[in-house]
UniProtKB/TrEMBL annotation, chains A, B:
InterPro entries (UniProt xref): NUDIX_hydrolase-like_dom_sf (IPR015797), NUDIX_hydrolase_dom (IPR000086), WH-like_DNA-bd_sf (IPR036388), WH_DNA-bd_sf (IPR036390), WHD_NrtR (IPR054105)
Domain of life assignment: Bacteria
Transmembrane stretches, start-end: none
Gene3D superfamilies: Nucleoside Triphosphate Pyrophosphohydrolase, Winged helix-like DNA-binding domain superfamily/Winged helix DNA-binding domain
Protein name: ADP-ribose pyrophosphatase YjhB (NUDIX family)
Domain Nudix hydrolase: 12-141
Gene source species: Flavobacterium granuli
DNA sequence: TCTTTAAATGTTATTTTAACACTTAATTGT
DNA sequence: ACAATTAAGTGTTAAAATAACATTTAAAGA
């Protein structure tokens, strides 16, 4: 019988979070060293089980908050993974989410307690279970998102240099982008505010700082466009 | 405690299938009239519960096969829905899949047994639970897919007219497309084989039939491209 | 004042896209 | 037989977007 609630099997549902950050070294993800069996001591995404009275989005937020102390974070559901033996302990279905966070804003203490560490996406160690698979899926999704919607507000500090934004796009798309073409395309989106302020730390000339125009940025987030670098 | 398998809640996991088809009237979806409570008699997507020993993809395939008799169908996981009260009987998380099928190939008898019916996407009745939401999500996804990868092989009969392919694109994207521009773009993809055969049923002049070059089609399916109509 | 360093800035050729209308092949009706 | 009908088939051009490319500038430090 297809549709009997009472006889249907129940399963464990987990959420796992792929947490992206960005700093001067490029695109990073946050991993934790598992402190329980199985695979204790191995690197892993941050995860937890869904609770009965909780929706998946909230479970993902809770997991992220538990490990990083962060709230109000950009998250998106990625995919649901259900291979029978993906978790060797017990059949567990996992819904993956990815988050974009500003590395400067996270709670370093919490991260230390959980033995968490930022890794460059190009230098990620072998992860437990099917987390490698989730990560590569998340990177593909982030690349796609970057070509269809603006990115940066979630990952950069409030004030940033154009060269930082360029580097962010280059690390996400994993390719070189012509500086002049990049600037004119970004400017055509009309989502940046150029400040009078300069950052003098990185060059003698100094470079202007920018912020995102949050309203225009959010408007662009809603309507997909194609931005080809 | 975040990670205790033994104390974590278990939940019911369902799959629901959004089944797209295409005929002379345009893009359609297959719905069933529920023959059990709750919401008996209302229109609904096809669904079923995940079994303990089954992966989600297989559950979606099983549900589709049960209602249509079809096998070897193009399906993609869409999204996982977890609102607390989305199913009034019991907390149920549902993983939605969408399928593209050739209407001509389905098993009409099975569909009759289950009181299934094809609806034009523009004339879909109110659906149970959050199925309306799933459907609009699926349409968005299908539109996106259509702009990034070829579509048609899964939905059209083996031999088809160029005008059918055009109409398929127009119904998916819900807009008029210039015939000449369409043909030159489709030809530039190099996925069609023009047959010597003509279909004489629709016009005095007759129109050439085409098939997809399956190998080239599948190759394009893997690498996203942007096709702007 | 000369050197150094990253920042800032525009132009042009190429490619892609969008807009647009007439001819053709065959059948049907007179 | 020929005129009318119907959907099929076919190219050109203007506009827009993209990609390629190099020099100048502002300030600090030697």
């Amino acid at each position: 019988m297809l549709n009997s609630y009472s006889t249907a099997d129940k399963v464990l549902l987990a959420v796992d979070c792929i947490i992206f950050g960005f700093d001067e070294d490029g695109l990073k993800i946050l991993l934790i060293k598992r402190d329980f069996e199985p695979e204790k001591g191995k690197w892993s995404l941050m995860g937890g089980f869904l609770r009965k009275e909780e929706v998946l989005d909230d479970a993902a937020i809770r997991v992220l908050n538990t490990y990083t102390g962060l709230q109000d974070i950009y998250m998106e559901q990625l995919y649901t993974y259900s291979e029978i033996d993906r978790d060797p302990v017990e059949r567990t279905i996992s819904v993956a989410y990815y988050a974009l966070i500003n590395i400067e804003n996270h709670n370093a203490e919490l991260i230390q307690n959980y033995h968490a560490k930022w890794f460059s996406v190009s230098e990620v160690p072998k992860l437990i279970f099917d987390h490698d698979n989730m990560l590569s899926h998340a990177i593909r999704r982030l690349r796609y998102r970057t070509s269809m919607r603006p990115v940066g507000f979630e990952l950069l500090p409030e004030k940033f240099k154009m060269s930082q934004l360029l580097k962010l796009y280059e690390s996400i798309l994993d390719k070189q982008i012509d500086k002049r073409n990049f600037i004119s395309k970004i400017n055509s989106l009309d989502i940046l505010i150029k400040l009078d302020e300069k950052d003098m730390t990185s060059s003698r000339k100094g470079s202007y700082l920018y912020t995102f125009d949050k309203e225009k940025y959010d408007a662009k987030l809603l309507n997909n466009f194609a931005l080809n670098f």
